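Feature request disguised as a bug report, sorry. It would help if multi-protein outputs had a clear separator. Right now it looks like this:
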Amino acid sequence: MDSVTEDRLLDGRLRLRQPARGYRAGLDAALLAAACDAADGQRVLEAGCGPGAALLAAAVRRPGARFTGLEREPEALALARENVALNALADRVDVIEGDVGRRFSHLGLPPFDAALANPPFFDDPAELRPPAPEKAAAWMADEGLMGWAEFLLKAVREGGSITVIHRADRLADLLSHLSAKAGSFQVRPIHPFADAPAKRVLVRAIKTGKAPLQLLPPLVLHERGGAKHRPEVEAILRGEADLPWRVQRPTRARIPPRGESP
C-alpha cells in the first residue's frame, strides 16, 4: 500500500487514514454525511465508501443508526476497515467487499432503510482523463450513472431514501435514472459563490415516493474575498450543523379582527 496519512474530521472527533496520493476525502464526502438523516435503529448503506470518510462521518453524526460500507478496491476496503476500528465503531459500522456493477442480491443482505452514494463523476473515458492513475476508480464509473442508480434502487426498501451527491450538470440524468422506481425528489444546489452556477447537487429520493419535486434553498460555499468557507459551511464541516431535508415552513402572522389590539 502507498503511503497513508491520518487526518482529523468533524473538529477532531473522527480519525481517518487515507492515501497520501490519489482520491482523498473532501467537501463532497462531508456534505453527503451531513445530508444523512437516518433515524435511530435504521440501517444505512454507502455504496462505494472508499476509506470511509462519508460513511464514518455519517455514523458519528447519527449514533443511533447502523451503517454498512460497500467497496470493491482492496486498498480502500482495507483502510475503511482500519478506520472503523480506529474510531471504535465496529459495534454498528461494517465494511464489506462488493461491486456496484453486480446486482444487490449478490450481497445476500435485506434491503436497507437508506442508501448514500458519491458516484464517480464521469462514465465516458473519452470525456475526461483522470488527473492521476490512482484516482481513476474514483473518477470513472465503469457501470455508468444508470448502473449506480439501479443498484441504489435495489438496495433500499419501499419507502427508503436514496441520497446522492453529484455534478450539477448531470442532474437531469440522475433524476431520470432514479425515477424508474423512486419519487418525492428533493434537490439542493451547491454553489461555489452566490453569483456562480451550481457545481454540485445533493439529491434525495424516496423509493415509490409520489410527492412533487422540491427545489430546496441552495448552499453557498464561499464569499468572494472572504474566508475559505462561509460560517454555515464551517459549521457543517465541524459537525455542528446538518443539511436538513425537512422544509421549515414560515409561521403565518395572525391578523387581529377589526377593533382588537394587535
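(second protein starts here, but nothing in the output says so)
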Amino acid sequence: MANLSVSRRVQSLKPSVTVAFMNRAKAMQSQGKDVLSFAAGEPDFDTPDIIKYAAINALTKGQTKYMPTLGDPATRAAIAKKLTEENGLPNCTTDHITIGAGGKHSLFVLAHVLIDEPKPGEPQQEVILPVPAWVSYAPIVELAGGKIVEVPTTVDTAFKATAQQIKQAITPNTRMLILNSPSNPCGTMYTPDELKAIGAVVEEAARTIAPNIIVLSDELYEKIIYGGIRHFSIGSMSQIAERVITLNGLSKAYGMTGWRIGYTGSSGEFGKKFTNAMATLQGQMSTNITSFTYPSIRAALTQCAGEVEMMRQAFAKRAELINVRMGKLPGIKNAKATGAFYAFPDVSAYFGKTSKGGRKIDSAMSMSEALLEESLLAFVPGEDFGGCGKNHVRISFACSEEQINKGMDRFAEFLSSLR
C-alpha cells in the first residue's frame, strides 16, 4: 500500500490560496470566532428573485433531463445576442457560444482545446500573462501543457501591461495572451485605448511572428465598474475578432457564484471550429450544466438590468470607501479600485517587523497568517498571483460598508502594533 500514489500532475498542483484562506476563515467563524473575512471573491447580494423563479418554474415543469452539451439553442442565442449588442463582437452567433459549469470550468476546457503538449524536441507553447493575475490561470495552462510567460506590472501602473511589453513578450511559440479587465486580484481595468493598442500588437504579431496567437479576454467583472473607464471588449476589434475568445459568466454581476454558470463567445469560422472542439471535450467531461438553470440565464441577461445596476452602485460606494481608508494607512501603496471588488495594496513597507504575537512579518503570507490568527482578519496573500504579488495582499470588498470600516480599523490597529 505504501507504493500507491496519485498522479504527478496533481502532486505538483498548488491548491488555490484564495479558497484556502476563505475556508480557514469559515472554519474559525463556525467555532464562534468573530472573523471578518475579505477572502472570497463573492458578492454578498442574493441572486435576484427573477432568476430564482425562472429556475423554479423550469424545475416544476419537468426540465430535468439531459440537454445539449453546450446548452439549449434559446439560451445560446440569448448569450450571442448579448455579446453582439453589448460587447460588439462581430459574426457571433449561436454556433459561437459555449456554456460550462462556471468560468473556471470553461477556462479549463478552452485551455485544453487550444494548447498542445509539445512533441519530443519541440518547445512548449507559450501563454503570455500580465501579472499579478488570478491564481488559476497559470495552473490550468500548465496542466494543458503550456508555458506561462509573465509580463510584470506594478502598483504604480495600476497593474496594467503596456502594448510594448506585450509585443516584447511575443515569440514564434506564443499561443495565447490572457487579458483580464476588470482585474482579479488588482481591482483595476484597461482603458479602451490601451486595449486597442494591445489589439494592434496582436494583429501585427499574427502577420509576422506568431501566426497561431489567440487572445483570451476574461470579462467576468465587466458590469462591476465605477472608475469612469468604459468597458471595452477586445473581441470587438474586427481585425483580430476571429482570434479572440471572450470568457464570461453570471457569478459576479448577478450574485450567482453557487450556480456555476460560465460561457465563452467567439467570432468567424475559427470561432465555430473552436466551439465544436469545446463540445467534443466537454462532452467527455461534464456534458451540459444543470438543465433547469438555462431559463435563469436568459432571465439574467434580459430582465435584471435594474438589479445589476443596484449592485454596481453599492460596489462603487464600497470602492470609494476602501480607497479612502487605504489612503490613510501609512506605508501602504494602493492603486485606486476602478472595477471588480478588490483592493491589492503593497504591504512590503512592514516586512521585517514583528507582530504582537511574536510572528516575524517577512512576506505577504506571514502577514496574512498573523492577521488571521491575531486580528481575526482574513485577507488573501499575494504570492500565488505572480509578479509583484509577493508584496501585496488581496482584499475583497464584496461586503457591507460596516464590515469594511471594522476591517480597516483592525488592519490599521495591526499595522500600528508591529515593531
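Even a blank line would do. Unrelated, but nice: The longest helix spans residues 305-327.
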